[in-house]
């Protein structure tokens, strides 16, 4: 629960299109909603930010306290976050910067908001700098008017995230192989970019398949009992994919990805199984959902 003061800032921010009066008049604020690492409940926090091109930067200063703020621990556990920025609201994946990149971005923040240098001087920990990418205005959201559209939207996101994690992982291993041949050394480990994106993918996939098993498939089976073999196959594929998802999630439990070679193998297995599953589901299920309106009518 936010404090009474924080809640008053949140309320004023939302009531005035992102503008807040004293003591934050003229400050660049955003609202960051994370999912509680222990509770699983949403938590909204007002934060200062610095715009950096097509992304915004937030710092886990905690006013220079010796420990990271709760919202930072939350986004490590659940990388998908909700951002309110002025009158704009969007979802993104929160990625803490690492190594020299973190130092460069912190210097960028301090150049615009010098108070963060004072917070850094007050503590021995390196203040985290978290990158939040803005939506690409060149990619307007596709119209979603049917359940088929919604399913396609979810599948497109899952495919995109998985492809990006796979590409970044392969780039890391290629850099590692080049280093053995005398090239520049790759960054240590697989990096928080890969970890955060893959964890967000795993959590979204689990939520999606749980919803299908618990609600969508039973309802569809009631309308189309002759397609029971299709629904049974989808459920079985969900169970098989869940085993791979659990293996990946276990490797992402720490801040550093454990066993990079095993992670790469499990990621390849996920790519193969999920791609085949989504292709089959779309071929069999999408035609049945083309006339089902979305969002569903309220009762």
TrEMBL record:
GO molecular function: coenzyme F420 binding; oxidoreductase activity
Catalytic reaction annotation: oxidized coenzyme F420-(gamma-L-Glu)(n) + a quinol + H(+) = reduced coenzyme F420-(gamma-L-Glu)(n) + a quinone
One cellular-component annotation, GO: plasma membrane
Domain Hemerythrin-like: 147-289
InterPro entries registered for this protein in UniProt: F420H2_quin_Rdtase, Hemerythrin-like, Split_barrel_FMN-bd
Region forming the signal peptide: none
UniProt-listed NCBIfam families: hi_GC_TIGR00026
Family according to the record: Belongs to the F420H(2)-dependent quinone reductase family.
PANTHER family hit by this protein: F420H(2)-DEPENDENT QUINONE REDUCTASE RV1261C
Protein name as it appears in the record: Nitroreductase family deazaflavin-dependent oxidoreductase
Originating organism: Streptomyces arboris
């Amino acid at each position: 629960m936010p404090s009474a003061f924080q809640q008053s800032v949140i309320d004023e921010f939302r009531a005035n299109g992102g503008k807040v009066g004293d003591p934050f008049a003229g400050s660049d604020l955003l609202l960051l909603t994370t999912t509680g690492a222990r509770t699983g409940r949403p938590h909204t926090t007002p934060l200062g930010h610095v715009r950096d091109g097509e992304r915004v930067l937030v710092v886990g200063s905690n006013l220079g306290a010796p420990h990271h703020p709760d919202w930072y621990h939350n986004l490590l556990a659940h990388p998908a976050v909700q951002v309110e920025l002025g009158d704009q609201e969007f979802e993104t994946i929160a990625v803490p910067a690492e190594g020299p990149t973190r130092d460069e971005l912190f210097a960028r923040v301090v150049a615009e908001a010098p108070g963060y240098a004072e917070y850094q001087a007050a503590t021995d920990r390196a203040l985290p700098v978290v990158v939040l990418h803005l939506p690409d205005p060149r990619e307007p959201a596709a119209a979603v008017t049917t359940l088929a559209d919604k399913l396609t939207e979810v599948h497109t996101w899952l495919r995109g995230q998985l492809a990006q994690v796979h590409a970044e992982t392969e780039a890391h291993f290629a850099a590692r192989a080049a280093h053995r041949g005398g090239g520049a050394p790759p960054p240590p480990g697989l990096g928080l970019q890969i970890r955060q994106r893959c964890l967000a993918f795993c959590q979204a996939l689990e939520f999606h398949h749980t919803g299908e098993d618990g609600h969508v498939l039973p309802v569809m089976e009631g309308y189309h009992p002759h397609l029971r073999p299709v629904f049974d196959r989808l459920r079985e594929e969900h169970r098989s994919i869940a085993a791979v998802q659990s293996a990946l999630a276990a490797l992402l439990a720490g801040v550093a990805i454990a066993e990079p070679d095993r992670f790469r193998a499990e990621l390849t297995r996920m790519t193969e199984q999920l791609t085949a599953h989504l292709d089959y589901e779309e071929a069999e299920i999408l035609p049945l959902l083309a006339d089902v309106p979305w969002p569903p009518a309220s009762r």
